[in-house]
Design a protein that fits this description.
51% of the residues lie in helices and 21% in strands. It is an alpha+beta fold and 414 residues long. The strands form 4 sheets. A 5-stranded antiparallel β-sheet has the order 2-1-5-4-3, sandwiched between helices. A 5-stranded mixed β-sheet has the order 7-9-10-12-11. The N and C termini lie far apart (139 Å). The protein binds adenosine-5'-diphosphate (ADP).
């Protein structure tokens, strides 16, 4: 009986051991599976998080605006690339306080104001570097559902160009008002003098009426030039470019201004080679040549020549020069003469009936043809105003247009 009992016990124990081992093995397998699942999940989660962060960073970096995110302790948590460029940040500033990161008191003040007020809109930040830069900043605190602070976000817009445009516009309006007021004041003055009794003397009355007419003309020219400029700048001016013979166009401009040139005893010489073709709008080309010739007659020395010449090459198209032998343009004014209302000698320009817009119009017209305008001058040696225009392709009339030759390939006398 005893050995039988022992055998039974051994069998029971063996069975229990087997069961326990199986359970253990199952448990271990379960555990391994669980661990694998956890690892896979954490790896996927980490990958998803990294992907999300990379997408977020790419999104922030691709923005035009600068973005700065501060944490709950107001330390830098994120700064995107546009802001790094705007503020000249060249190192890793994550974890730094505002002053340490940017050394800008105004920015620190903005952060304190945002803490107090919750959000601040259109805060102006001026960066005194070279060139000066203007930023508009919008900032807001980030709060969780309980209203506890998670930090702050600041968005920076570069408004430097807008500011410059605004200043130019303001300056332009002030200039236009001034330019319009001057002839108007004179017209009013002459009219009042006439009404005050001068009309009784026919000689004086005629002189005053002539002055009124002259200043009214000036107002008309100014308004015409302003309208031309406005149309050019808004792209409303319709151009109809065609192959044009430059020599003939210059001759027409010289003929139109012959009377004015004769008054000042100025000889106009057209030395543009015949056959040189430009691709331009006829009326606008006439306006460019007219403005440059008119200036050369007005500002060149009386009794001297004005030379118009042109060359052509395959790369640069046709280059035309209007050269006078007057006092020329001082070096400091060379870069400015094409600006609206810029005059070297204000009184002289007004006296000659100038609007101060002639060269600005020349520059715009030439540019809208795809060319450029510039001037070279040596003090006392006269001015050489030049402009380039695309050379026109000339249809060969004999073969009905099948053959094409560029004007730059002609011998200039064809
Ligand atoms: P304006 O109506 O005053 O002539 P422009 O725009 O045509 O206006 O010219 C601007 C200024 O450039 C003129 O006021 C003048 O001072 C200067 N200028 C233009 N052409 C010449 C020239 N050929 N020689 C000397 N100065 C010139």
């Amino acid at each position: 009986m005893w050995p039988g009992f022992l055998t039974l016990l051994a069998m029971i124990l063996g069975g229990l051991l087997w069961l326990t081992r199986r359970r253990l093995a199952r448990f271990e397998a379960e555990n391994a599976r669980l661990q694998h699942t956890i690892e896979t999940y954490s790896r996927r989660h980490a990958e998803a998080l990294a992907r999300e962060q990379a997408q977020q960073a790419a999104l922030f970096d691709s923005m035009v605006e600068g973005v700065l995110v501060l944490d709950s302790k107001l330390k830098v948590r994120l700064v995107n690339q546009p802001l790094e460029r705007l503020l000249g940040v060249a190192r890793d500033i994550r974890g730094c306080a505002i002053m340490e990161a940017f050394r800008l008191h105004e920015l620190e003040e903005l952060v304190s104001r945002t803490v107090r007020e919750g959000q601040v809109g259109d805060f102006e930040l001026e960066l005194l570097g070279q060139p000066r830069c203007f930023l508009e900043v919008n900032s807001a605190r980030i709060l969780d559902r309980q209203g506890d602070s998670l930090g702050m976000i600041l968005v920076f817009h570069d408004v430097t160009r807008l500011k410059q445009l605004e200043n130019t516009r303001r300056e332009f309006v002030a200039n236009v008002s001034h330019e319009l007021r001057t002839p108007l004041t004179l017209i009013k003055g002459f009219a009042e003098t006439l009404l005050g009794g001068a009309k009784n003397d026919p000689a004086v009355a005629t002189r005053f009426l002539q002055m009124i007419e002259k200043h009214a003309d000036r107002l008309g020219f100014l308004i015409d030039d302003l309208l031309t400029l406005a149309r050019l700048e808004s792209g409303q001016l319709h151009l109809d470019p065609k192959p044009l013979e430059l020599h003939a166009a210059v001759q027409r401009a010289c003929d139109d201004l012959g009377g004015r040139a004769a008054e000042r005893n100025v000889g106009l010489l057209n030395e543009v080679p015949a056959g040189l073709l430009v691709h331009a709008d006829a009326e606008r080309l006439q306006q460019v040549l007219g403005n440059l010739l008119d200036n050369a007659i007005k500002y060149g020395h009386a009794g001297k020549r004005v030379l118009v010449s042109a060359t052509s090459d395959a790369n640069h198209g046709v280059e035309c020069s209007v050269r006078d032998f007057g006092p020329g343009i001082p070096p400091a004014a060379i870069d400015r003469v094409f600006e609206r209302f810029y005059r070297v000698d204000r009184a002289r320009s007004r006296e000659q009936g100038g609007t101060g817009l002639g060269l600005a119009i020349v520059k715009h017209l030439v540019q809208s043809h795809g060319g450029r305008a510039w001037v070279t001058s040596e003090a006392g040696q006269g001015a050489d105003f030049r402009f380039s225009l695309p050379a026109a392709e000339m249809r060969n009339r004999e073969d009905g247009g099948a053959g094409m030759a560029t004007a730059s390939n002609t011998d200039g006398h064809g």
